[in-house]
Amino acid sequence: MPADRLKVDVEGRPLELSNLDKVLYPAAGFTKGEVIDYYTRISPVLLPHLADRPVTRIRFPNGVDDKSFFEKNKPAATPDWVRVETLPAPGSTKGRETIDYVVADDLPTLVWLANLAALELHTPQWKVGEHPDMMVVDLDPGPPAGLAECCPVAVLMRDRLADDGIDSYPKTSGKKGMQLCCPIAGNQSADDVSAYARRIAQELEKEHPKLIVSKMARNLRPGKVFIDWSQNNAAKTTVAPYSLRAQRAPSVSTPLTWDEVEAGARGRKPAVRQFTSAEVLDRVEEYGDLLAPLLDGGPELPAR
């Protein structure tokens, strides 16, 4: 066996890891071995959020400074123990009717994906064979607005959703913005969820036009926070909680407390920011899984 390959057993599954010393985050000197270590250590809180959801991967074989590619279909030489679900492919750019999706339900599959340099893991708002059980509100700041400007918008959105009995849980995107995740009943279509999210976004834009925009046009976004309600489209995915992101440092889509977001909305420290993988492991040690309530289901959305 080549010196750069290592045979391991992960929960009874044989894996051959390769190029563990390969640097995937050059600015931070963060290697593929460290990526695998992070995903292994974060797996107790990450795997429940991946369970039963087809996972789209963004792979960076030569690191974040080089080319990447989206991968929905199962890769070549997928082990026979990896769960694969053949599902309709709405909006496929390649004209496919179905895609053989990987479902990362267990640690061996997660380690296998990390070994393929699948740094980013994205999932839809629905589980295999079911309607959406989560609504996502993506807060996308238009420069020069940033994460700080997302905080007051997040609080406004939280309070408005609470009026309808909808709980929301914040996380960073791991890049420039923030997302609110809302557990819902799972008996309404993606179109219904998108329509509701759009209506609330439009209400808030009308009330706070200098802060919020709900329209897709990019020329309207500078200096404002775009509330992207369209993330709830059945064909779209959102970065999974605790997933790495392809930034200079190994940043992570990180669950936040509402105390942190409210402090950010008031401009107080400690300000909300993007967190690295090491910091996220420490946060999980301190807080546990702040997004655990997403796993317990939620209410039906109000009718239009």
TrEMBL record:
Residues 31-290 form the DNA ligase D polymerase domain. It comes from the Bacteria. It holds the Pfam family LigD_Prim-Pol. Keywords: Ligase. The keyword Ligase applies. One of its GO terms (molecular function) is DNA ligase (ATP) activity. This is Non-homologous end-joining DNA ligase. Its EC number is 6.5.1.1. InterPro entries: LigD_pol_dom (IPR014145), MtLigD_Pol-like (IPR033649), NHEJ_LigD (IPR052171). The keyword Lyase does not apply.
